[in-house]
Amino acid sequence: MLVGWISNSSGRADAMAAAANALRDRGADLIIHCGDVGGRHVLDELAKLDAAFVWGDRDTDRMGLLRHARNLNLLCFGLLGELDLDGKRAVLVHGDDKKLVRRLLDEQQYDYLFCGHDVEADDRKVGKTRIINPGSLHGSPFRSAALLSTTSGEVKFLTV
After folding, report:
1. In sequence order, what are the beta bridge partners of 110?
2. Are 51 and 75 in contact (CB under 8 A)?
3. CA separation for the pair 80, 7 (Å, rounded)
4. Rounded to an integer, what distance in angstroms lies between the CA atom of residue 57 and that of residue 45?
5. Buried b / exposed e across 98-129, counting CB within 10 Å, b at 16+?
6. In angstroms, what CA-CA distances link 41 with 8, 20, 69, 87?
């Protein structure tokens, strides 16, 4: 399975569309948005794919976004989501709550921890947990996304 990861679109539907197209063109089966969606028009773009998202600290209209996501049949995990990716346990959060991230890493219950918030892309391991941050679609010098092969474990960072 190929999983695409994005974060920090901050209401930029054009950036969301560019990232979605780049990930889809590379074969992504699923797209996960790690928070700071920023607007309903971003969800409109995300809903064109098999996708889900978590809240970010800048997603202030959560009830409005949640209602819109439900109308689009788009899965919103809230603050934390869990996925089974080909037998690997994954947790996704935005990443702004450093205590939560630290607790998840201390517990070592997950193979993957996917997060956003920080604009720098990241791929590293803490114990058995691999932390992957796709970088940012807004607020950094370049827009980035990530693509993970769950079978090989390979991660590719894309500039979109």
Report:
1. none
2. yes
3. 14
4. 20
5. eebbeebbeeeebbbbbbbbebebeeeeeeeb
6. 14, 13, 10, 33
- Residue 135 and residue 148: Cα distance in Å, rounded? 14
- 28 forms beta bridges with none
pTM of the model: 0.95
Pair of tokens at residue 5 = 């990861």
* Alpha-carbon separation of residue 48 from 24, 72, 73, 131, 156 (angstroms): 10, 9, 10, 27, 22
Query: In this predicted model, what pLDDT tens digit does every residue of 83-131 receive, in sequence order?
Result: 999 999 999 999 999 999 999 999 999 999 999 999 999 999 999 999 9
Placement of tokens 């080909």 in the chain: 86
Per-residue pLDDT of 40-89, as tens digits, reads 999 999 999 899 999 999 999 999 999 999 999 999 999 999 999 999 99
State the Cα–Cα distance between residues 52 and 46, nearest whole angstrom: 8
